[in-house]
Design brief:
The chain is of the alpha/beta class. The protein is 31% helix and 18% strand. The strands form four sheets. Strands 1-13-12-11-14-10 form a six-stranded mixed beta sheet. It has a six-stranded mixed beta sheet with strand order 2-16-15-19-17-18, with no helix packed on it. Strand 8 and strand 9 form a beta hairpin. The relative contact order is 0.12.
Length: 540
């Protein structure tokens, strides 16, 4: 009996010891596992920090910070990022996920019609920072040729603003305090051009080239970031950026616009390359199944970057942010595709060709289409017999960042689109509660109607101004490492240090236009941003 008791006792204690040993081993294994995971995460964080520091240093020396050769370990975005399209075989690739595409009815058909616009105007107000009363070189009744000087800024008399067409100066429109609003030209039936002596690109130095561009009117086609102004002749940009596609609602297809102008576009790129200490960068469209125009993909002497994603992926400011972010101390230039063509045509023909292919868009038009015209064309001439109703609004540009104009108004200086919208001056009963009519919205409370549905836009804001609330919506549609909500509050309080630190210098109006669209407080964010930029410029 004693032996049996002893045996059972030994078996019991052995099982207890075995159980405790197994429990201890499991706990020890769990502890080691947690420590190992923490060690891996710490090492990964340190490597990621080191990679980010390397990217920052690379950007300082003009090296593409997004290149796979810059960094220590791949980030999660590198592991799970979208693949390049098969045609994007040269240059860097960026897949942007934040943004929103507003699909509207009234897209221009891919065909170009000829219109007989007779009146054209250049508006000094289209140029940020220009004196309200520039020095006029012409008077009412004078005859001018395309390329003849019309006026210049008194602060920078070397930069000329020239006539887009030949004809008679029929009116000089003045506004408040005799500020010049428009210089209007009645165009000749056959455009006459001033002939320029073109410098040899292979021999000319940068200073002489800049002087020629300023005297011939080409310098006014350039924009400088920050502040989005015509640059000074003495400023040498770190880089020059060109976006070859536009993702704004109903925006013109630039691959279609550039057809037949391939030589002029390349020549314009050659000229721009002489003006920068860095590179000319092209932003290319990687959204479609087909490759963009050969004029873009086969361009020589440029750095190419592919972008895929919703609007505002086509904004040059968004592209700059991902390629080489700027600061108030760094100057870069931006140029539009049709402006590059104008520069190139000057060096091919010796004449100032202000030709424009303009997209006439909007559901209120009988036949949305592209038309051949010139810079600053009369809206009334372009849309004659095209508008289907009277209660409409005319916009020079797209619905997000364009400028409202009267029917008797004119295209803006850089304008390549006219949008006609139904005026939203009707009241929708309980519209905020019962959205009966389809409308584009980022809110999940309103039906999306499918990704292929195109909405008929109007100008109704569906509500009035409200308190400036923190919603987090701005950040969902701005694919930049910027906090627009905090930036707007810094602008409102005129906190200069915060404005600079939050990235004000990287933005212009079109970059926050989508934020204004989604804003639940109905804030005029583009006007607020311009206020901040002007204040920053005054203090710098």
């Amino acid at each position: 009996m004693n032996k049996l008791f002893t045996t059972l006792s030994l078996a019991f204690f052995a099982s207890r010891i075995s159980a405790q040993s197994a429990s201890f081993s499991a706990n020890q294994l769990l502890l080691y596992g947690v420590v190992g995971v923490c060690a891996v995460l710490i090492i990964w964080a340190m490597m990621s920090l080191a990679s980010n520091l390397l990217k920052i240093e690379a950007s300082k020396y003009g090296i593409d910070p997004n290149s796979s050769s810059v960094g220590i370990l791949p980030g999660l975005r590198d592991i799970f990022k979208a693949k390049k399209p098969s045609y994007a075989n040269e240059g860097s690739f960026f897949h942007l996920t934040r943004g929103y595409d507003i699909r509207l009815d009234g897209e221009a058909a891919l065909s170009v019609a000829e219109v007989k616009a007779s009146r054209f105007a250049i508006c000094p107000a289209d140029f940020h920072g220009m004196s309200p009363i520039p020095k006029l070189e012409v008077q009412q009744g004078d005859e001018v040729k395309a390329g003849d000087a019309l006026f210049f800024d008194k602060k920078r008399p070397e930069i000329q603003y020239v006539a887009p067409v030949s004809g008679e100066i029929v009116e000089i429109v003045r506004g408040e305090k005799r500020a010049i609003s428009e210089v209007i030209i009645l165009a000749d039936k056959e455009i006459q051009h001033k002939k320029f002596d073109i410098p040899n690109l292979d021999q000319v130095d940068r200073s002489s080239l800049a002087s020629f561009l300023a005297s011939s009117g080409l310098w006014s086609l350039l924009k400088e970031r920050p502040f989005d102004r015509v640059p000074s002749l003495t400023e040498v940009p770190v880089n020059i950026f060109i976006s070859t596609f536009d993702t704004a609602p109903l925006a013109p297809d630039l691959s279609f616009v550039v057809q037949g102008q391939e030589a002029a576009f390349q020549k314009g790129l050659d000229v721009l390359a002489k003006l920068t200490s860095g590179q000319v960068h092209l932003g290319l469209d990687a959204r479609g199944e087909k490759s963009p125009a050969g004029a873009f993909t086969n361009a020589q002497g440029v750095q190419k970057h592919w972008f895929k994603g919703p609007h505002p992926a086509g904004n040059v400011g968004v592209q700059i942010h991902h390629i080489a972010p700027i600061s108030p101390k760094v100057k870069v230039w931006t140029v539009g595709v049709q402006e590059v063509i104008t520069i190139g045509n000057m060096f091919l023909t010796g004449k100032f060709h202000a030709n424009r292919v303009v997209a006439l868009t909007g559901a209120e038009l009988k036949n949305p289409q592209y038309v051949h015209t010139f810079q600053g064309a009369s809206v009334q001439d372009l849309l004659r017999d095209h508008v289907t109703s009277e209660n409409v609004r005319f916009v020079s540009g797209d619905v997000l960042s364009g400028k409202e104009v009267d029917q008797k108004g004119f295209l803006s200086f850089h304008g390549d689109q006219v949008t006609v919208l139904k005026e939203g001056n009707d009241y929708e009963l309980f519209g905020w509660l019962l959205p009966l009519s389809p409308r584009p919205s980022v809110s999940g409370t309103i039906p999306s109607y499918g990704s292929d549905h195109k909405f008929e836009a109007n100008t109704n804001t569906h509500g009035e101004k409200r308190a400036f609330v923190v919603s987090g919506l701005y950040e969902t549609v701005l694919p930049m490492d910027i906090y627009p909500m905090h930036l707007m509050k810094a602008i409102t309080s005129q906190n200069l240090d915060k404005m600079e630190g939050l990235g004000l210098a990287e933005l212009t109006e079109e970059d926050v236009a989508l934020c204004e669209f989604v804003c639940p407080s109905k804030n005029p964010m583009q006007a607020m941003l311009r206020q901040g930029l002007e204040y920053l410029h005054e203090q710098s």
